[in-house]
Amino acid sequence: MESSVEIKSLVNKFVVTGDHQNSDYFSLIKELVCRRNLFAEKDEEYSVWQNEIDRTYDLVQAELISNKSQPVSLVKFGTSGWRGIIGKDLFIRSVGQVASAIVAMYREIDTDEPLREALGVENIA
After folding, report:
1. Residue 24 phi/psi, 5° resolution?
2. pLDDT of residue 60
3. How far, in Å, CA of 6 to CA of 62, rounded?
4. Phi and psi for 83 in degrees, rounded to 5?
5. What is the pLDDT of residue 61?
6. Which residues are within 8 A (CB) of 31 and not within 5 positions of it... i.e. 6 or more apart?
7. Is the dihedral of CA 82, 17, 61, 27 positive or negative?
8. Phi-psi map region of 120: left, alpha, beta (phi>0 left; psi -120 to 50 alpha)
9. How far apart are CA 46 and CA 11, in angstroms?
10. Which residues does 50 contact at the CB level (< 8 Å), separation at least 6?
11. Do 106 and 99 contact (CB within 8 A), yes or no?
């Protein structure tokens, strides 16, 4: 199959035009990388696939910046921090909301002894 036809087929499978929420950019990137890696870096076909990978990362960036939806999953903090899917759970607006909630929680420690003890701090300063 000619690469442009195969690329178009993959894009149609994973991208809903104008709809970041229902697009699956990382699955598309995974498929594109697998096909790109069939070629040597110096091959023209390698560049064709890489250009589509770059274009797909541009879509991820656009989603990170423009997403106004609620995160797909509830916010979960693990041992290494907030866990979620980039663009779907973690995006500029959601990170701002979580940061604001954390600041609001710390502002409560002056009047909430159990919270102060749980956080292991004496005051917000």
Report:
1. -120, 80
2. 96
3. 24
4. -110, 135
5. 96
6. 10, 14
7. positive
8. left
9. 17
10. 36
11. no
Contacts of 41 (CB under 8 A, 6+ apart): none
Residues 82 and 77: their CA atoms lie apart, in Å, by: 4
Determine the pLDDT at residue 47: 97
Q: What is the pLDDT, as a whole number, of residue 66?
A: 93
Give pLDDT, residue 22.
93
For residue 87, give both structure tokens.
């663009």
Q: Which two tokens stand for residue 99?
A: 């940061």
Average pLDDT, consecutive stretches of 10 residues, N- to C-terminus, the chain (125 residues): 91 96 96 98 97 98 91 76 82 89 89 89 81
Please report, as a single letter, which amino acid is at residue 110.
Answer: D
Q: Over the chain, what HEC string results?
A: CCHHHHHHHHHHHHCCCCCCCCCCHHHHHHHHHHHHCCCCCCCHHHHHHHHHHHHHHHHHHHHHHHCCCCCCCCCEEECCEEECCECCCECHHHHHHHHHHHHHHHHCCCCCHHHHHHHCCCCCC
